[in-house]
């Protein structure tokens, strides 16, 4: 019993260390997938957040419908719809179809985050901007959004972490990221547990780095407090 | 400078301004007094179209302004506003607060804006605070920055909505002094205030509002020493 325990963990650490180069490569794919999808999702999110606060009913309906669909269907279904849908009309790689699927998915949650943070900025800020002769656009861009973005950072960081972990679903359409590599190794060695744990360690490292980066950005933006 | 005729304003069913007639001449300082809820802020906010009138006419420098066709951003550039709660931009330094609108709206060069911004900050006694964020300032300093920020657009008229009401008593004086200096330079000003000392000393005219109407208007001496209307007498005796 005790011996089995020791053997397992020493085997695990050995695997972790020996496989570091291939997993490092796979981690880069995971990171790229996360970065690209989150980057696009930020624009999608901002766009739909602005629709939601536009006070134009049809625009609000569009935004609500989008958010409703994303929230109401499984992410894996969205990813497969993007994969089959996009690859059938377009020469697009599995990587990019998943990236767009994840962007579509995260965009809805980010839209809600932005909407909340924009609405949390007091009316007085808008009035101050408008009273100085700024247009609605300029007031939004120069006064409201910078403050809203700062307030959105903690929940955004949270969403980034979710996005990072969700990128593991790319394995199901053959993108060679961390989870795909781990399951392949598991199948080849009949030792799923070891490789799943290796995979978990890599995700923990990535999440740790991401948390650090978000924390740094938060600190940088907090100079005015 | 400003002519208001038969101004009516509703919030839903609530009739807040009931046929206001009101004029301000160039370089005149008018103080608006009256109980809370009488419509002073709404009146002021109609003048720079932060609130839209329901009926009546608002003329600025002789020109009638139609919110539907006229460029309100252009109108607002000529009408500076100072708020009770300052509404400084917290993510910008003091100087950035002051130069933001001149750069973004008037498109003047950054170096020119900075030069003028520093001059304005000197003028309100905050030359040494240019690179500080608003969170580091006292209420009185914040309000003086807000005044400098409004002045940076070189407005024709300045509106003040209870500029000292949110301040600790010991900080009221510095803001009132800044406003006095401004009045002495000939700035046209409309000031909603509960500072009767200021109204008495600085105002050319005092306007008493009650329940959405202007009840009485006159020189400070007349209003404070022998108000004609019973309502004005009651209001003054309730606060003095
Ligand atoms: N945005 C608004 N929506 C609805 N009612 C309002 C709004 N702003 C002011 N009011 C009402 O209008 C009346 C006048 O308010 P206000 O102009 O702020 O008075 P004052 O500045 O003299 O205290 C009050 O009864 C107030 O409750
Ligand atoms: Mg008021």
UniProtKB/TrEMBL annotation, chain A:
Transmembrane segments: 29-51, 63-83, 89-111, 195-217
This protein's record includes keyword Mitochondrion: no
Pfam families named among the record's database cross-references: BPD_transp_1
Location of this chain's protein in the cell: Cell membrane
Superkingdom of the organism of origin: Bacteria
A biological process term (GO) from this entry: amino acid transport
Membrane topology, from the record: Multi-pass membrane protein
Assigned GO CC terms: ATP-binding cassette (ABC) transporter complex
One MF annotation (Gene Ontology) recorded for this entry: transmembrane transporter activity
Keyword Transmembrane helix on entry: yes
Keyword terms of this UniProt record: Cell membrane, Membrane, Transmembrane, Transmembrane helix, Transport
Domain ABC transmembrane type-1: 27-214
UniProt record similarity statement: Belongs to the binding-protein-dependent transport system permease family.
Entries under NCBIfam families matching the protein: HEQRo_perm_3TM
Name of the protein this chain belongs to: Amino acid ABC transporter permease
UniProtKB/TrEMBL annotation, chain B:
CDD domains according to UniProt: ABC_HisP_GlnQ (cd03262)
Molecular-function annotations in GO: ABC-type amino acid transporter activity; ATP binding; ATP hydrolysis activity
Keywords assigned by UniProt, alphabetized: ATP-binding, Nucleotide-binding, Transport
Pfam families, per database record: ABC_tran
Residue ranges of domain ABC transporter in the record: 2-236
Gene3D superfamilies: P-loop containing nucleotide triphosphate hydrolases
SMART domains per UniProt: AAA
Protein's name according to its UniProt entry: Amino acid ABC transporter ATP-binding protein
